[in-house]
Amino acid sequence: MTALDHNAAIPNAVPSGPTGPTKPILSVRDLVVHFPVRGRGLLGRTKGTVHAVCDVSFEIYPGETLGLVGESGCGKSTTSRAVLGLRRATSGQVVFEEQDIAELSANRLRRLRRQMQIVFQDPMASLDPRLTVHEIIAEPLRIHRLHAADRARYVADLMQTVGLNSEHGNRYPHEFSGGQRQRIGIARALALEPKLLVLDEPVSALDVSIQAGVVNLLEDLQRRLGLAYLFVAHDLSVVRHVADRVAVMYLGRIVETGKSEELFANPAHPYTQALISAIPIPDPRKERARRRIVVSGEMPSPTDPPSGCRFRTRCPLFANRLDDSERTRCQQEVPELAERGQGHPVACHFAEAVPVL
Amino acid sequence: MTTELTAGTPAADESADVLVVEDLTVSFPTDDGPVQAVRGVSYRLREREILGIVGESGSGKSVTSMAIMGLLPRSARITGSIRFRGQELVGLRESGLNKLRGSKIAMIFQDPMTSLNPVYTIGYQLAETILAHNNVSKAQARKRSVELLDAVGIPNPGQRVDSYPHELSGGVRQRVVIAIAMANRPDVIIADEPTTALDVTVQSQVLDALRTAQQETGAAMVLITHDLGVVAGQADRVLVMYAGKPVEIGDVEDIYYRPRMPYTMGLLGSVPRLDAGRSRRLLPILGSPPSLLNLPAGCPFTPRCPMARDRCETEEPALTDATSRRHRAACHFSEELADVRPHDLFAPTAEGDLP
Q: B227 to chain A: which residues are within 8 Å by CB?
């Protein structure tokens, strides 16, 4: 904990928790991101569209963590890129502190980006191997022309804040272990004193004994600095641990969202139920006594998503429990993400909360 | 040492052990000197049992299995003994290994594309495995291929058999690899991180297929993984590796409910659990695993161990009986862990990876 006492470098410490101010720091409204699929050749014509993100809406409040979860290809990373303005939205809005980022000039957007930073999954791929750690952490400061006078001291403080030895500033990334490299990435993200951090699978490349320290660091930083996190991950165990609220994505859509405790205690969408029941628990007796909700097959291609409910092709409810007229409804009518008497919004016509754990 | 781990059970004689690994060491020469990747691994795999091997990156869990399969590069120096049904595998020629590999001992890797050939159909590759070790016609081999695909839960196996690997998803590819592994009814299946690259809903399908393969063939299985949840659900016994050596071995409940080695306890304390809420803070293990180049004397876990004392720095502990003869741990002070829980030993700090 000693490292965190050196947070003189970061003056905007706001002691606010998830129940703090009521204005969201980030609102995503009806976000749609499509990618064209082009044919071969120089003049390749558009052959189809990848429906990567479809009508996604959520809000993040200062000091809170929203966990965005789902399996590969569900659109969670594309959503996070669109939030940062790294990916243009096809339609919909990303509103950061009451400013629609699509309406900002490149110059204004760049200034706004100070407020929202990203930590990537693979620290080795996101750190320039030819720069020293000091240069890496100072790079955003150089670009934004900040802390010119006291840069060395500021960077050293940041290193201590994330639990790195500040005397190691002239070393290169390869001289550090995986967990330390991820701390370098976090220090770089903190350098501009952001209000929102997008954490894209920040610990999934790390061994468990190392991962725990980085998770704890992220929790401490949030408490000390009042940061908001968009925590993108496939590992529900980690998400349960860090998130205040959770949004579950499947094939580009949010299928269920709610407070973390509530969603894990009473998942109401068959996909959420299957996802939770598929995560192994490191406890032999509990793990062997569990009931699995099995989904068949794998995620269909987002170039041609199923009509109606996108999950119906794999849904155990659809396959085993619904009658023909109910199935027709799943095929024809897109289930809205709405409160359906389950305590939180869920996008299933036949939602029913079932405790799975 | 012949009675270790099996003494006291009805199947105490060596005939019940399909695979016996004894004091296996593997080192690789590098410009900076030899890297001791495996520093003395011993275990016995009994008929039909599932042995889970857990450990973090670089603990030597995969190198051990590659040594069993004879898949290490020529530069690797291997000592010790690996016996499959009494037959010594260390030093066995390639021709001798080829008789065993894919028939008596099968291996499943993390990435199915490392085992599947992209230019042949999966039916061809299944039939190839069957024909290599059995005197059957091509038509019979094809029929068996379809049966195998069906057994691992692949829908429409009659059509899928003519697919190329690139036409299949990751989960289906891994099930094809499992089908190939079970094709010749092996006695041992070695699965090295078989579900690590897969999404969780697909992971549970593949684990089911693996279970089917093990039960239908009656094989014993070595399941190598870093996922403590997967091991908890699948394994009969568990071997925990650290810095190239087993540090604890025992029945799955011994390891999870009565760990007697601080590293095992640290692993259990550091893993986030789906059945625990936010209130439970994770307990990292400080520092990182040691370099296997010039490993210092003493217990390799000493720099990270909250219980370490002077003796730990000079004397490396051997595996000795912990709670029973079947449960062994490598710690000088393992009896002190009897009533200790992870949070008694490890601090919930935000550090955990100091140099």
A: 280
ipTM of the complex: 0.89
Beta-carbon neighbour count of residue B321 at 10 Å?
15
CA dihedral A171, A175, A180, A185 (to 10 degrees): 60
In whole angstroms, what is the distance from residue B263 CA to residue B288 CA? 12
> Left if phi > 0, otherwise alpha if psi is -120 to 50, otherwise beta: which for A334?
beta
- In A, minimum Cα distance to B202 occurs at A298
For residue B275, give the amino acid letter.
D
Q: Do B274 and A179 touch (CB under 8 A)?
A: no
pLDDT of residue B354: 57
A278 neighbourhood in chain B, CB within 8 Å: 200-201, 203-204
Bridge partners (DSSP) listed for residue A232 = A68, A200
Classify residue A312 as exposed, middle or buried by CB count within 10 Å of its CB (0-12, 13-18, 19+).
Answer: buried
Q: Is A214 in Cβ contact with B285 (below 8 Å)?
A: no
> If phi over 0 gives left and psi between -120 and 50 gives alpha, with beta otherwise, what is residue B5?
left
pLDDT of residue A303 exceeding 50, the answer is: yes
What H or E segment, with its residue span, contains residue A331? helix A324-332
Chain B contacts of A286, Cβ < 8 Å? 275
Q: Which candidate in A209, A239, A261 is best for mutational testing of the B interface (most B CBs within 10 A)?
A: A209
Amino acid at A184: I
Q: Would the pLDDT of A142 be above 50?
A: yes
pLDDT per position as a tens digit, B275-314: 887 778 999 999 888 989 888 899 999 999 999 999 999 9
Contact A279/B266, CB-based, under 8 Å? no
pTM, entire model:
0.90
Pairing relationship of beta strands B327-329 and B320-324 according to DSSP bridges? antiparallel
Q: Which residue in B103, B322, B201 sits closest to A234, CA to CA?
A: B201
Residue B229: closest CA among chain A residues belongs to which residue?
A: A282
pLDDT at res. B277:
72
Q: What is the DSSP letter of A3?
A: G
Chain A residues in contact with B286 (beta carbon < 8 A) = 213
pLDDT, tens digit (0-9, with 9 covering 90-100), for B333-353: 999 999 999 999 998 888 766
Question: CB pairs below 8 Å between A and B: how many?
Answer: 178
Does A118 lie at the interface with B, CB-CB under 8 angstroms? no
**Facing residue for A209 by CB, picked from B56, B229, B231:** B56
DSSP secondary structure letters along B246-282:
EEEEEEHHHHHHS--SHHHHHHHHHS--TTS-TTS--
Is residue A297 left, alpha or beta, with left meaning phi > 0 and alpha meaning psi from -120 to 50? left
Q: Are strands A253-259 and A245-250 parallel, antiparallel or unpaired?
A: antiparallel
Going by the DSSP 8-state scheme, the letter that residue B293 receives in this structure is: B
Sheet holding A46-60, edge to edge: A46-60, A26-38, A91-96, A99-100
- Whether the CB of A265 is below 8 Å from some CB of chain B: the reply is no
